[in-house]
Amino acid sequence: MEVTSAYLYTVNTLPQILEAIQRAQVPPKFTNAFLQALGFKSTNDRAFINVWKGLGFLDGSSTPTEHYRSFRDKSIAKAVLARQVRLAYKGLFGVDESAQNLTAEAIKGKLATLTGKDETVVKKMAATFKALCKEADFAAADNTKPEVKPPVDPATAAAEVVVESPALDQVTPRLGGLAFSHTVYINLPATRDIAIYDAIFKSIREHLL
After folding, report:
1. Are 163 and 125 contained in the same domain?
2. Are residues 46 and 113 in the same domain?
3. How far lies 166's CA from each of 54, 184, 209, in Å?
4. Model confidence pLDDT, tens digit, residues 138-161
5. Is the pLDDT of residue 23 over 90?
């Protein structure tokens, strides 16, 4: 049916739960005990765990995913939530790409068609969807396009470093102006961690120069 079947029994505490998640450390497992430790002890709040799973922030064993960790960054949290809502309610956004702007009644009608659930369940699903959309920023999510990397050409994937070693003068005398040099090809890893590049070039300086 391409929409998550998880829903909240009450949406009143949703903003507070999301805020608490951003303040707390990432738990090994997101359990009822952890939810209670955050201050949400009502049995109604337990449904949040299934909703969080449906959105992809937890895996099937309640282990936080990378999306969970991204959500803790307040600068992008609302965009991350919007992206996951679009994925969790793919069928709903397939019917109306601006489903986040629909009225509660319109959402109920579309969810009833998509899921075949009874009116009581559909009402809670619609309320959950609207509450999640209220905490999300769909404009930011739509403006953030994933980075598309061009195909890597093996011929240009290597970084060429030309090193002329002073030791060559001692090992091989220069004859008639003839000079020798080393050409070293280094395959640099695809990473944004500058420390890795620093370590590579430090090793070059120590062992080749």
Report:
1. no
2. yes
3. 63, 15, 8
4. 998 765 544 434 444 444 344 444
5. yes
Are residues 55 and 25 both part of a single domain? yes
Higher pLDDT: 12 or 192? It is 12
Q: What is the pLDDT of residue 182?
A: 56
CA distances from 42 to 8, 12, 38, 121 (A): 12, 12, 12, 20
The terminus-to-terminus CA distance of the chain in angstroms comes to: 63
Token match 């005398």: residue? Answer: 173
Does 1 reside within a domain? no
| CA 171 remoteness from chain centre | 54
CA-to-CA separations, 95 to 28, 38, 102, 136, 160, in angstroms, rounded: 37, 37, 11, 20, 52
| pLDDT tens by residue, 86-136 | 999 999 999 999 999 999 999 999 999 999 999 999 999 999 999 999 999
Give one word for 77, left, alpha or beta, with left for phi > 0 and alpha for psi -120 to 50.
Answer: alpha
Check whether residue 194 and residue 138 sit in a common domain: no
- Domain residue limits at 198: 158-207
Rounded distance, CA 49 to CA 55, Å?
Answer: 10
The band of 198, judged by pLDDT with boundaries at 50, 70 and 90, is: confident
Q: Assess whether 89 and 115 both reside in one domain.
A: yes
